[in-house]
Specification:
Layout (H helix, E strand, L loop, with lengths): L3 H10 L10 H7 L6 H11 L6 H14 L1 H6 L3 H18 L3 H21 L8 H12 L3 H8 L5 H11 L7 H20 L3 H9 L9 H4 L4 H15 L6 H8 L5 H18 L3 H15 L9 H18 L2 H18 L4 H17 L3 H9 L2
Helix pairs in contact: 3-4, 4-6, 4-7, 6-7, 6-8, 7-10, 8-11, 10-15, 11-14, 11-15, 16-17, 17-18, 18-19, 18-20, 19-20, 19-21
Length: about 375
Amino acid sequence: MQPKALDVNIAVSRVDVTVDKRYEVLKEVMGEYYGLRKGVQTFLEELCHPYKNWEFIVREARAYSLNYFNVLKTHPKGPDAAKLYIDIFFQAVDSSRDKAVILNAVDDLLVFIQRLIKDSGRDLFRFLGVLDYAFEQIRQSPEEIFFLFVKSFYQLDKLGRTYSQLAPSGSDLTAINRLLREYYQYSYHYWLEQGDAGLWFEKESGYAIKDAGLGEIFKPVSHKQLKAWQNELARISEKSDGNPGKILSQLTKLPGYGRIVGVYNEIPQKLLSAGRDKEQGNQWKLIYLLHIMDFTGLSSIHEETLRDINRTISWLIQHENPQLIEQALEKTFAILKISAEKFPGTALNCVLNMGRGVYKTDKNELVSFFMFDH
Protein backbone atom coordinates (compact mmCIF):
# COMPACT_ATOMS: atom_id res chain seq x y z
CA MET A 1 0.00 0.00 0.00
CA GLN A 2 1.40 3.38 -1.01
CA PRO A 3 2.06 5.61 2.04
CA LYS A 4 -0.09 8.69 2.51
CA ALA A 5 3.05 10.82 2.73
CA LEU A 6 3.99 9.89 -0.82
CA ASP A 7 0.44 10.51 -2.05
CA VAL A 8 0.53 13.98 -0.53
CA ASN A 9 3.98 14.71 -1.93
CA ILE A 10 2.94 13.76 -5.43
CA ALA A 11 -0.35 15.64 -5.20
CA VAL A 12 1.27 18.82 -3.94
CA SER A 13 4.31 18.90 -6.19
CA ARG A 14 2.67 17.31 -9.25
CA VAL A 15 5.95 15.93 -10.52
CA ASP A 16 6.89 12.51 -11.80
CA VAL A 17 9.30 10.79 -9.45
CA THR A 18 12.20 9.09 -11.16
CA VAL A 19 14.40 6.79 -9.11
CA ASP A 20 18.06 7.77 -9.27
CA LYS A 21 20.16 5.13 -11.02
CA ARG A 22 22.47 4.89 -8.02
CA TYR A 23 19.65 3.13 -6.15
CA GLU A 24 19.19 0.44 -8.80
CA VAL A 25 21.45 -1.85 -6.80
CA LEU A 26 18.94 -1.77 -3.93
CA LYS A 27 16.18 -2.85 -6.30
CA GLU A 28 18.40 -5.63 -7.59
CA VAL A 29 19.44 -6.90 -4.16
CA MET A 30 16.07 -6.55 -2.43
CA GLY A 31 14.34 -7.93 -5.52
CA GLU A 32 15.40 -11.37 -4.32
CA TYR A 33 12.06 -11.29 -2.49
CA TYR A 34 9.27 -10.81 -5.01
CA GLY A 35 6.90 -9.54 -2.33
CA LEU A 36 9.25 -6.68 -1.49
CA ARG A 37 9.53 -5.17 -4.95
CA LYS A 38 6.56 -2.84 -4.74
CA GLY A 39 7.46 -1.66 -1.26
CA VAL A 40 11.08 -1.06 -2.23
CA GLN A 41 9.96 0.88 -5.30
CA THR A 42 7.75 3.11 -3.12
CA PHE A 43 10.63 3.60 -0.67
CA LEU A 44 13.02 4.62 -3.44
CA GLU A 45 10.49 6.96 -5.04
CA GLU A 46 10.05 8.71 -1.71
CA LEU A 47 13.82 8.89 -1.35
CA CYS A 48 14.07 10.58 -4.75
CA HIS A 49 11.11 12.91 -4.28
CA PRO A 50 11.94 16.64 -4.09
CA TYR A 51 9.87 16.90 -0.88
CA LYS A 52 11.09 13.95 1.12
CA ASN A 53 9.34 12.46 4.12
CA TRP A 54 12.44 11.64 6.14
CA GLU A 55 10.52 9.96 8.94
CA PHE A 56 9.16 7.42 6.46
CA ILE A 57 12.54 7.03 4.74
CA VAL A 58 14.43 6.36 7.97
CA ARG A 59 11.81 3.89 9.18
CA GLU A 60 11.86 1.97 5.89
CA ALA A 61 15.66 2.03 5.64
CA ARG A 62 15.90 0.51 9.10
CA ALA A 63 13.32 -2.16 8.27
CA TYR A 64 14.90 -3.22 4.99
CA SER A 65 18.51 -3.09 6.18
CA LEU A 66 17.89 -5.05 9.38
CA ASN A 67 14.96 -7.34 8.64
CA TYR A 68 16.47 -8.52 5.37
CA PHE A 69 20.08 -8.45 6.44
CA ASN A 70 20.62 -12.01 5.28
CA VAL A 71 19.96 -10.85 1.71
CA LEU A 72 22.72 -8.24 2.00
CA LYS A 73 25.02 -10.77 3.58
CA THR A 74 24.72 -13.32 0.79
CA HIS A 75 24.09 -11.26 -2.34
CA PRO A 76 27.15 -10.50 -4.52
CA LYS A 77 26.25 -6.81 -4.45
CA GLY A 78 25.40 -6.82 -0.75
CA PRO A 79 28.28 -4.48 0.21
CA ASP A 80 27.14 -1.94 -2.40
CA ALA A 81 23.61 -2.04 -1.02
CA ALA A 82 24.90 -1.76 2.55
CA LYS A 83 26.88 1.35 1.64
CA LEU A 84 23.74 2.90 0.16
CA TYR A 85 21.80 2.29 3.37
CA ILE A 86 24.59 4.03 5.27
CA ASP A 87 24.37 6.96 2.85
CA ILE A 88 20.60 7.12 3.29
CA PHE A 89 20.89 7.35 7.07
CA PHE A 90 23.49 10.10 6.72
CA GLN A 91 21.27 11.95 4.24
CA ALA A 92 18.48 11.92 6.80
CA VAL A 93 20.83 13.26 9.48
CA ASP A 94 22.00 16.05 7.17
CA SER A 95 18.66 16.98 5.62
CA SER A 96 15.86 16.39 8.12
CA ARG A 97 14.74 19.26 10.32
CA ASP A 98 13.00 16.95 12.78
CA LYS A 99 15.20 16.25 15.82
CA ALA A 100 13.47 12.95 16.50
CA VAL A 101 14.11 11.77 12.94
CA ILE A 102 17.77 12.78 13.18
CA LEU A 103 18.20 10.91 16.46
CA ASN A 104 16.51 7.83 14.98
CA ALA A 105 18.75 7.98 11.92
CA VAL A 106 21.87 8.16 14.12
CA ASP A 107 20.73 5.24 16.27
CA ASP A 108 19.57 3.17 13.30
CA LEU A 109 22.88 3.69 11.54
CA LEU A 110 24.78 2.48 14.59
CA VAL A 111 22.50 -0.53 14.92
CA PHE A 112 23.10 -1.37 11.25
CA ILE A 113 26.88 -1.07 11.67
CA GLN A 114 26.66 -3.30 14.72
CA ARG A 115 24.66 -5.82 12.70
CA LEU A 116 27.26 -5.79 9.92
CA ILE A 117 30.01 -6.54 12.42
CA LYS A 118 28.22 -9.15 14.52
CA ASP A 119 26.14 -11.05 11.99
CA SER A 120 28.21 -11.10 8.80
CA GLY A 121 30.14 -14.12 10.03
CA ARG A 122 32.53 -15.46 7.42
CA ASP A 123 31.39 -12.75 5.02
CA LEU A 124 32.60 -9.92 7.25
CA PHE A 125 35.68 -9.44 5.07
CA ARG A 126 33.37 -8.38 2.22
CA PHE A 127 32.02 -5.49 4.29
CA LEU A 128 35.28 -4.15 5.74
CA GLY A 129 35.45 -1.34 3.19
CA VAL A 130 31.84 -0.39 3.93
CA LEU A 131 32.56 -0.30 7.66
CA ASP A 132 35.66 1.85 7.17
CA TYR A 133 33.55 4.21 5.08
CA ALA A 134 30.95 4.45 7.85
CA PHE A 135 33.59 5.01 10.54
CA GLU A 136 35.14 7.86 8.55
CA GLN A 137 31.78 9.46 7.82
CA ILE A 138 30.92 9.48 11.52
CA ARG A 139 34.34 10.86 12.47
CA GLN A 140 34.09 13.68 9.95
CA SER A 141 30.57 14.70 11.00
CA PRO A 142 30.02 18.28 12.19
CA GLU A 143 30.45 18.63 15.95
CA GLU A 144 26.74 18.86 16.75
CA ILE A 145 26.11 15.64 14.81
CA PHE A 146 29.19 13.86 16.15
CA PHE A 147 27.89 14.58 19.66
CA LEU A 148 24.73 12.62 18.81
CA PHE A 149 26.84 9.60 17.88
CA VAL A 150 28.92 10.01 21.04
CA LYS A 151 25.95 10.03 23.40
CA SER A 152 23.81 7.48 21.55
CA PHE A 153 22.54 4.48 23.48
CA TYR A 154 24.54 2.38 21.00
CA GLN A 155 27.96 3.36 22.27
CA LEU A 156 30.93 3.58 19.92
CA ASP A 157 33.35 2.03 22.41
CA LYS A 158 31.18 -1.10 22.64
CA LEU A 159 31.04 -1.23 18.86
CA GLY A 160 34.84 -0.96 18.82
CA ARG A 161 35.21 -3.85 21.26
CA THR A 162 32.99 -6.04 19.11
CA TYR A 163 34.96 -5.10 16.00
CA SER A 164 38.23 -5.85 17.78
CA GLN A 165 37.02 -9.35 18.58
CA LEU A 166 35.51 -10.20 15.18
CA ALA A 167 37.59 -8.39 12.55
CA PRO A 168 39.54 -10.86 10.38
CA SER A 169 43.25 -11.17 11.09
CA GLY A 170 45.25 -8.58 9.19
CA SER A 171 42.34 -6.14 8.81
CA ASP A 172 43.19 -2.48 8.37
CA LEU A 173 42.07 -0.93 11.66
CA THR A 174 43.04 2.64 10.83
CA ALA A 175 39.49 3.96 10.45
CA ILE A 176 38.07 2.45 13.64
CA ASN A 177 41.12 3.56 15.65
CA ARG A 178 40.76 7.12 14.35
CA LEU A 179 37.08 7.16 15.20
CA LEU A 180 37.61 5.86 18.72
CA ARG A 181 40.39 8.36 19.42
CA GLU A 182 38.01 11.14 18.41
CA TYR A 183 35.20 9.61 20.45
CA TYR A 184 37.21 9.36 23.67
CA GLN A 185 38.82 12.76 23.21
CA TYR A 186 35.43 14.36 22.68
CA SER A 187 33.94 12.52 25.67
CA TYR A 188 36.63 13.56 28.14
CA HIS A 189 36.76 17.12 26.83
CA TYR A 190 32.99 17.45 27.13
CA TRP A 191 32.91 16.38 30.78
CA LEU A 192 35.93 18.49 31.68
CA GLU A 193 34.04 21.48 30.28
CA GLN A 194 31.09 20.82 32.59
CA GLY A 195 32.87 21.55 35.84
CA ASP A 196 34.02 19.17 38.54
CA ALA A 197 31.13 17.11 39.95
CA GLY A 198 32.42 17.07 43.52
CA LEU A 199 33.27 20.77 43.67
CA TRP A 200 29.82 21.64 42.37
CA PHE A 201 28.21 19.55 45.09
CA GLU A 202 30.34 21.19 47.78
CA LYS A 203 29.17 24.61 46.64
CA GLU A 204 25.49 23.66 46.47
CA SER A 205 25.29 21.58 49.64
CA GLY A 206 27.71 23.51 51.84
CA TYR A 207 29.52 20.28 52.76
CA ALA A 208 33.16 19.51 51.99
CA ILE A 209 33.06 16.12 50.30
CA LYS A 210 36.18 14.90 52.12
CA ASP A 211 34.80 15.84 55.52
CA ALA A 212 31.47 14.24 54.67
CA GLY A 213 33.15 11.07 53.41
CA LEU A 214 31.82 11.55 49.88
CA GLY A 215 35.10 11.57 47.97
CA GLU A 216 34.72 8.06 46.55
CA ILE A 217 31.27 8.88 45.17
CA PHE A 218 32.59 11.67 42.96
CA LYS A 219 36.05 10.28 42.22
CA PRO A 220 35.09 8.32 39.05
CA VAL A 221 33.93 11.54 37.32
CA SER A 222 36.30 14.01 38.97
CA HIS A 223 38.41 16.26 36.78
CA LYS A 224 41.47 14.51 38.15
CA GLN A 225 40.20 11.16 36.90
CA LEU A 226 39.07 12.56 33.55
CA LYS A 227 42.49 14.11 32.98
CA ALA A 228 44.13 10.79 33.84
CA TRP A 229 42.04 9.07 31.16
CA GLN A 230 42.84 11.88 28.76
CA ASN A 231 46.56 11.35 29.39
CA GLU A 232 46.20 7.61 28.87
CA LEU A 233 44.43 8.28 25.57
CA ALA A 234 47.31 10.52 24.49
CA ARG A 235 49.80 7.82 25.44
CA ILE A 236 47.94 5.24 23.35
CA SER A 237 47.57 7.65 20.45
CA GLU A 238 51.30 8.34 20.39
CA LYS A 239 51.83 4.69 19.54
CA SER A 240 50.54 5.31 16.02
CA ASP A 241 53.39 3.22 14.60
CA GLY A 242 52.57 0.31 16.86
CA ASN A 243 50.42 -2.74 16.28
CA PRO A 244 46.94 -1.50 15.18
CA GLY A 245 45.27 -4.46 16.86
CA LYS A 246 46.93 -3.71 20.20
CA ILE A 247 46.08 -0.03 19.85
CA LEU A 248 42.42 -0.90 19.26
CA SER A 249 42.44 -3.25 22.23
CA GLN A 250 43.94 -0.56 24.47
CA LEU A 251 41.50 2.08 23.26
CA THR A 252 38.47 -0.05 23.98
CA LYS A 253 39.61 -0.60 27.57
CA LEU A 254 39.18 3.10 28.30
CA PRO A 255 35.87 4.13 29.89
CA GLY A 256 33.60 5.71 27.31
CA TYR A 257 30.86 8.29 27.39
CA GLY A 258 28.22 5.77 28.41
CA ARG A 259 30.25 4.67 31.43
CA ILE A 260 30.50 8.28 32.61
CA VAL A 261 26.74 8.73 32.21
CA GLY A 262 26.28 5.57 34.26
CA VAL A 263 28.38 7.01 37.09
CA TYR A 264 26.34 10.22 37.12
CA ASN A 265 23.18 8.13 37.21
CA GLU A 266 24.39 6.32 40.34
CA ILE A 267 25.48 9.42 42.29
CA PRO A 268 22.03 10.46 43.66
CA GLN A 269 21.34 7.05 45.18
CA LYS A 270 24.82 6.92 46.70
CA LEU A 271 24.29 10.36 48.22
CA LEU A 272 21.02 9.15 49.71
CA SER A 273 22.83 6.27 51.39
CA ALA A 274 25.71 8.49 52.54
CA GLY A 275 23.58 11.00 54.46
CA ARG A 276 23.72 10.87 58.25
CA ASP A 277 19.95 10.33 58.21
CA LYS A 278 17.13 10.08 55.67
CA GLU A 279 16.48 13.81 55.75
CA GLN A 280 20.02 14.73 54.80
CA GLY A 281 20.30 11.85 52.34
CA ASN A 282 17.16 12.89 50.48
CA GLN A 283 18.23 16.53 50.45
CA TRP A 284 21.59 15.59 48.92
CA LYS A 285 19.90 13.26 46.49
CA LEU A 286 17.47 15.93 45.27
CA ILE A 287 20.28 18.46 44.84
CA TYR A 288 22.06 16.13 42.45
CA LEU A 289 18.96 14.93 40.64
CA LEU A 290 18.17 18.53 39.76
CA HIS A 291 21.78 19.03 38.67
CA ILE A 292 21.56 16.07 36.29
CA MET A 293 18.62 17.74 34.54
CA ASP A 294 20.89 20.68 33.66
CA PHE A 295 23.14 18.51 31.48
CA THR A 296 22.29 18.12 27.81
CA GLY A 297 24.84 15.33 27.80
CA LEU A 298 22.73 13.34 30.28
CA SER A 299 19.54 13.54 28.21
CA SER A 300 19.38 9.74 27.99
CA ILE A 301 18.61 9.53 31.73
CA HIS A 302 16.47 12.66 32.07
CA GLU A 303 13.09 10.93 32.06
CA GLU A 304 14.24 8.40 34.65
CA THR A 305 15.68 11.28 36.70
CA LEU A 306 12.36 13.14 36.59
CA ARG A 307 10.63 10.10 38.07
CA ASP A 308 13.24 9.98 40.83
CA ILE A 309 12.76 13.70 41.51
CA ASN A 310 9.05 12.97 41.84
CA ARG A 311 9.64 10.25 44.45
CA THR A 312 12.27 12.21 46.37
CA ILE A 313 10.40 15.48 46.64
CA SER A 314 7.24 13.62 47.67
CA TRP A 315 9.22 12.19 50.59
CA LEU A 316 10.67 15.59 51.50
CA ILE A 317 7.22 17.22 51.48
CA GLN A 318 6.09 14.75 54.11
CA HIS A 319 9.14 15.08 56.34
CA GLU A 320 10.78 18.49 55.96
CA ASN A 321 10.03 22.03 57.15
CA PRO A 322 8.05 24.38 54.86
CA GLN A 323 10.99 26.67 54.06
CA LEU A 324 13.14 23.85 52.74
CA ILE A 325 10.16 22.42 50.85
CA GLU A 326 9.52 25.77 49.17
CA GLN A 327 13.13 25.94 48.02
CA ALA A 328 12.92 22.42 46.65
CA LEU A 329 9.62 23.13 44.90
CA GLU A 330 11.04 26.31 43.36
CA LYS A 331 13.96 24.46 41.80
CA THR A 332 11.80 21.53 40.73
CA PHE A 333 9.25 23.74 38.98
CA ALA A 334 12.04 25.45 37.06
CA ILE A 335 13.21 22.05 35.81
CA LEU A 336 9.69 20.88 35.00
CA LYS A 337 8.99 23.94 32.85
CA ILE A 338 11.96 22.99 30.70
CA SER A 339 11.18 19.26 30.65
CA ALA A 340 7.41 19.41 30.11
CA GLU A 341 7.66 19.57 26.33
CA LYS A 342 9.93 16.54 26.05
CA PHE A 343 8.39 14.41 28.81
CA PRO A 344 4.84 15.77 29.23
CA GLY A 345 3.40 12.72 30.97
CA THR A 346 6.25 12.37 33.45
CA ALA A 347 6.32 16.11 34.18
CA LEU A 348 2.55 16.26 34.73
CA ASN A 349 2.67 13.26 37.04
CA CYS A 350 5.41 14.96 39.04
CA VAL A 351 3.31 18.13 39.45
CA LEU A 352 0.24 16.12 40.48
CA ASN A 353 2.16 14.16 43.09
CA MET A 354 3.76 17.30 44.47
CA GLY A 355 0.32 18.89 44.69
CA ARG A 356 -1.14 15.93 46.55
CA GLY A 357 1.78 15.92 48.95
CA VAL A 358 1.52 19.64 49.64
CA TYR A 359 -2.24 19.48 50.31
CA LYS A 360 -1.76 16.60 52.74
CA THR A 361 0.51 18.77 54.90
CA ASP A 362 -2.43 21.08 55.79
CA LYS A 363 0.06 23.96 55.90
CA ASN A 364 -1.73 26.96 54.42
CA GLU A 365 1.40 28.92 53.54
CA LEU A 366 2.86 25.96 51.68
CA VAL A 367 -0.42 25.30 49.85
CA SER A 368 -0.63 28.97 48.87
CA PHE A 369 2.97 28.91 47.65
CA PHE A 370 2.26 25.87 45.51
CA MET A 371 -0.98 27.22 44.03
CA PHE A 372 -0.25 30.86 43.39
CA ASP A 373 3.50 31.29 43.03
CA HIS A 374 3.86 29.00 39.98
